[in-house]
Specification:
single chain; alpha/beta; 5 strands; Nucleotidyltransferase, domain 5; five-stranded mixed β-sheet
Length: about 140
Amino acid sequence: MPNYLGIDYGTKRIGLAWADELLISLPAGAIPGVDREGCWEALTGEVATRSITDFVVGYPVHMDGEIGRRAQEVDIFITRLEERFGLPVHRVDERLTSAAARETVGGKPSAKGADKTGRVDSTAACLILRDFLNI
């Protein structure tokens, strides 16, 4: 029985979403980002609580298809996920998901960083996971 954890990578916050065998992507809040204390402990708790079998991570590709510095950071994060949990990790092109998430929760697309609650991050993770499940 699959249990997916969708991840919108961030240094301040990591947005989460999850789906089980019904393949419906649901927001699961946000945890501290990789530059914050408690990131890996919170992620470990989510994995255990939801019996996660697979990670689905948003992969930040530039609009022209090039891989930049942020994608390299995500590659390092993915390596740590694989080492720590030993679970499959799937990359999903996340172009424009944060802008779509801000619009979905009623924020302005230009209000980057304005959401301190993690709703935008979690919604972005939900969109990333939905894209994966619809493939």
